[in-house]
Design a protein that fits this description.
By secondary structure, the protein is of the alpha+beta class. It has eleven helices and twelve strands.
Length: 383
Amino acid sequence: MRWSAAALLVIALVGCSGGGEEPAAAPVVPVTVPAFPDPGTTALDSGKAQALQAVLAKIVAFPDSPAGSRGATAAVVTDRWTWSGAAGEDIAGTALRPDTSMAVASITKTFVAAEVMMLAKAGKIELDKPISTYVQHKLTANGATVRQHLSMTSGVPDYLDEDYRAVDQAVAAAPGKHWTLDQPLSYHTGTVGAPGGDSGYSNPSYQLLGLLVEKVTGQPLAGVLRRDLAAPAGLKHAAFQDGEKPQPPAAVDHNDSCGEPDGYLPCRAWASAVAASGGLAADAPTVARWGYQLYGGRVLPPDLVSQMTTKGNAPYGLGTMLFTLQFGLGTAYGHFGDMPDHTSLLVVVPAKKVSVALLVADGGRHLDSAITGLTTALQPLLG
């Protein structure tokens, strides 16, 4: 099973190829690993960093290839040191910096899943109760549990292409409009199946989980994620759109439906329409730090992280893509994000206590080879 982008017309569009795996014969018991130590604060020596920067140079050297891009930024956080770099430019020709913000799309799901796990730990929700206990909607009527929505086994399929086109038309009519989390769900026309079967990538599931967070907390999603996750993790350059605007510098995004830039990526209507499934904008150092803090058991207890990173009857954890053996450093996990002008990938390798983020200024790009290039260059630096 390989996870890949489903590049459509909007942000936060990442999909699952294939038909899933057979359900596990017995429950999988999560293995709890110790929390990571404090993230390093020392910058990697510039001489040693040359091999990492060379990977970015290779990406922008072939901008028209599926694995290339006009511009790329990356960051690494370890328990001993940090590094960030940039190469190339955005679609407007502005040179990228390591701290250039981009829309990181479905990496947002790691935040929403972490918040749901936190609410469960606090006893405010139960993961194995139907999500309809908390959110009443036509897409919650099949009895799928909160956990099944987290693991993409809810039976609620992703939006159809024609659904996305309808949303796109609505955005074009009012690109500066704020959308509530339930408004895009009204465009969903797919057939809802029985829960608990094969996994199928579902952005609507995460919109429903965002609604759950708002219902239980009584507060807007952006403020909850800022208070409970971003602030404790030290994420100063994460923006949960449209409750927050991306901080400059920000890579220019182009979307025909959005018209002129309005300070959001790509515009307020799209950003708010996918707020819970893909509304996050951030720079590479922020994404890498988030991966270290989350999967290192530093913003959630390690036992909750273990649940998020354990494969049950799907090739997906809870808000987490599982990358075992894919990038050359052993068991890894994180998330992919894709939109028309930006593609992103977060990979955390727990055995090495390292988090890697790569953002590129083009949509629909294949980042596997670039991340493998970074992890290969990292091996002699990690010991």
